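Re: that chain you flagged

S.,

Sorry for the slow reply, it's been a week of failed gels. I finally had a moment to sit down with the sequence you sent. For the record, here it is as I used it:
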Amino acid sequence: MTDSDGESYVNGTAEATESSTLSLDDNDIHVCQDGPRDAPALLLIHGSASSARSWNPMVPLLTGSHRVIRIDLLGHGRSAKPADRSYAIPDQARRAGVALDRLGFEHAVVVGHSSGGTVATALAEQRPELVTALALVNTGPGLDAFIAPESAATGLSQWPPTDEQLRQFASTGFSRAGYQIPEELLDEVRAMTYHSFTTTMRATRSYLEQRALPDRLTVLGKPLLVIFGEDDRRWRSSSASDYRAVPGAKVELLPGLGHSPLLEDPPRTATSLLAFTTIHAVRAD
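Prediction finished late last night. Pasting the structure tokens below so you have them in one place:
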């Protein structure tokens, strides 16, 4: 199934996003594609309680040199939200890999925001031949870096949460003065089920408890870029230095930005990202 999902701009020309639903062996995954079909693949993975739409401001800045693929992880966005399927990080990563296979991509630079960085890491662990390089945006390296208090929304017995609870939950995702949280991002949380919301949160914690990301990434030996909004209110930005243990890793702090630089300042975030991805991207045959 394919439909229109907005527009991106390539060389000043408006192009409709290619939106489709892939039927995998354990449920349906929604996928968006933008940019030249023969350009190097760039997979963008959103964080918990978000969706592919969180990358919307970044897409027009990336499609000049990449085929940009975005997925809604199971339980999020337009993907299925089953109560009888695994939301564990390795299973989310496996689905992302299958999605790239179905779309015909043999190589991709993979970018993950927040907990999406754990999915990106797990995908590289499972499919090292598929992932040419990794970029993590405000992804905490381990649980000891977590600083945000538990949101009231995580303990609700009824669903969906109230508007006030939603805004409280989302507020720690931003730090730029005067930034207005996009209503469509709050809608993404409302559209989740209580089961998919709480289970995905626990899945990230479980993955980090098993092994910190720098340890996992050191073994992989993949080119690594870490971008961190310096004023992150969920993860200590100083923890970004933990990634320097990974040989060759590049760590970049963005002053004045918080947990979601891709939304707070897309041009600055894209500049940092493109300097890395254009070096490590592999063009489709």
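What I noticed first: The first helix runs from residue 59 to 62.

Talk soon,
D.
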